[in-house]
Amino acid sequence: MSADEKTQAKGEQVKGKAKEAAGRVVGNERLTAEGRADQAKGDAREAKEKVKDVFKH
After folding, report:
1. pLDDT digits (tens, 9 = 90+) for 26-40
2. Which of 22, 44, 49, 53 falls 20 to 30 Å from 6 in CA-CA distance?
3. Predicted TM-score (pTM) above 0.85
């Protein structure tokens, strides 16, 4: 996994967790859902990079 892609994946996951938490605190379901979506994007990016790494070796 390239360091840049790994960093972006982790960044999306962290951003998503923060959005989800903020949405819960203020009772904003849309913000909570956006946070979950951001986390899912980060998870998908991370999984894609792991698959690429497997096939490189």
Report:
1. 999 999 999 999 999
2. 22
3. no
Place of tokens 């980060």: 42
d(CA 48, CA 40): 12
Distance, in Å, from the CA atom of 17 to the CA atom of 46, rounded to the nearest integer, reads: 16
Q: What is the DSSP letter of 27?
A: T
Q: For residue 17, what are the contacts with CB-CB under 8 A and spacing of at least 6?
A: 35, 39
Rounded to the nearest 10 degrees, what angle do helices 3-26 and 29-56 cross at?
160
Distance of CA 25 to the CA centre of its chain: 20
Q: Identify whether the C-beta of residue 15 lies closer than 8 Å to the C-beta of residue 3.
A: no
Radius of gyration of the chain (CA): 13
